[in-house]
Write a structure and sequence with these properties.
It is built from nine helices and no strands. By secondary structure, the chain is mainly alpha-helical.
């Protein structure tokens, strides 16, 4: 007589069963399709449309919902960060920009600039100055020079108000097409 082998149950299925949720069974074969499947709709379409229209509150809500399924998309995360920045949800915007920089190994110029602006708006002028000095955009050399001048002034400002410096840099970035129009 052979010993019974207990069936291995994955932990997540065990937890689901204990919580009274449906436990998946063996997959059933899918019937043959005679009509080709339609391509999946872009999960970020609603966020992209709201972002393009300048409705950043709606864009933030739509991107938050769609980014859950696509955590490693730096473009969507950068747009979510900017939408949060535009709606003055600065701490959440900071997190998104940092995440994009992590995904791109620090190579996303837009996120670097926006992170510097976000940190300055949060009053973290030394960290903002570090990010603005690290900003590099070959297509916008004048903006790079301006960001370095603003970084130097941020270091000298101490406890002063960085708002005029932020506004100057934002306006220049918009004029050069690096940031979207407000």
């Amino acid at each position: 007589m052979t010993a019974d082998k207990p069936r291995a149950i994955p932990r997540r299925h065990l937890i689901r069963a204990l919580l009274g949720r449906d436990v998946p069974t063996a997959p059933t074969p899918e019937p043959e399709r005679t009509v080709p499947a339609a391509p999946a709709a872009d999960p970020h379409a609603a966020g992209n449309a709201a972002y393009a229209a300048g409705d950043y509150a709606e864009a933030a809500a739509a991107y938050r919902a769609s980014v859950r399924g696509d955590l490693s998309n730096p473009i969507v995360r950068a747009r979510l960060g900017y939408a949060l920045y535009a709606t003055r949800q600065l701490i959440q915007a900071k997190v998104e920009f940092e995440h994009v920089l992590h995904l791109t190994n620090g190579g996303d110029a837009f996120s670097r600039l926006c992170l510097g602006l976000t940190l300055a708006a949060l009053g973290k002028v030394d960290k903002a100055a570090d990010n603005l000095e690290a900003f590099a955009a070959p297509q916008a050399e004048e903006l790079v020079a301006l960001s370095r001048r603003v970084a130097a002034k941020l270091r000298d400002i101490g406890n002063g108000d960085p708002a005029p410096l932020i506004l100057t840099l934002e306006r220049s970035a918009r004029a050069m097409g690096v940031m979207p129009e407000a």
